[in-house]
Amino acid sequence: MPLMIPFPDISPEIFTIEFGNFTFALRWYALAYIVGFLLAWATVVALMKRPALWPGERAPMEPGQVEGLLTWVIVGVILGGRLGFVIFYQPGYYLTNPVEILYVWQGGMAFHGGLIGAALAGWLFCRRHAIAPLHVADAMALATPPGLFLGRVANFINAELWGRPTTMPWGVVFPGPAAQSCPWDWEGPCARHPTQLYEAGLEGLVLGLVLLWLVARRGSLRMPGLTLGVFIAGYGLARFVVEYWREADAQFVTPDNPLGHVVRLGEAGLSMGQLLSLPMILLGVGIVLWTRRRTAAQH
Q: Please, which of 85, 147, 236, 249 could form a disulfide with 110 given CB 3.0 to 4.6 Å?
């Protein structure tokens, strides 16, 4: 039996309060969203208080406007994330059970949908208040990785979105019959790649540090679109790579397609996460090239 790590004894619920027949439970996943949004708000406010970081040494919006922006973005993330999950991952199920689209407490959020929702909400806010949207998008890009890091750690605590079986010594034995459904022929528990932590490290920590370096050391906010482009391409690349070790969503898995590829290329293929990440990589690289060309033309 290979070396493996037992799943830590951490409850998905931080605490539970009961009032008669009413029960309130604060979960780590909900706390990750709350803290992530608060950190994003604090980051954007800090950027708006430093005009030297921006073109012409003028911040694109007043610090007091960030709270309104955050409200719009929260709505966009929730609506976009939920609708993205419904459309990208389980359209057939929700077509026959449309009321359950509203059951957000049962889980089911897609990052790609949340990103689209946040982008649309941010653009509408900027249009309403006559603010340059590309500058605000750069600030939002820098503010997003901490929330991604916390969200992926919460996925790990929830014992969800785990990876494929592995014999590597850092494989984690996740609880539940689905996680323990392992094709190995030896006795004992099934260890899997902790892909939630892989994503937390790449999408949250590494990408966040790269963006921070670009802003602090390379003055990327003075080149509108550069920070945004690197974020979009960086997230898409990180997600695309980690998908090679992530367990496919059950609805895509069939006896003749055990890896859950939605695009088949002989023995290989692409998962839904990879299919959605490819346009992000291309879009991000395109924004970076367009920004650099425009900046060069202005000089």
A: 85
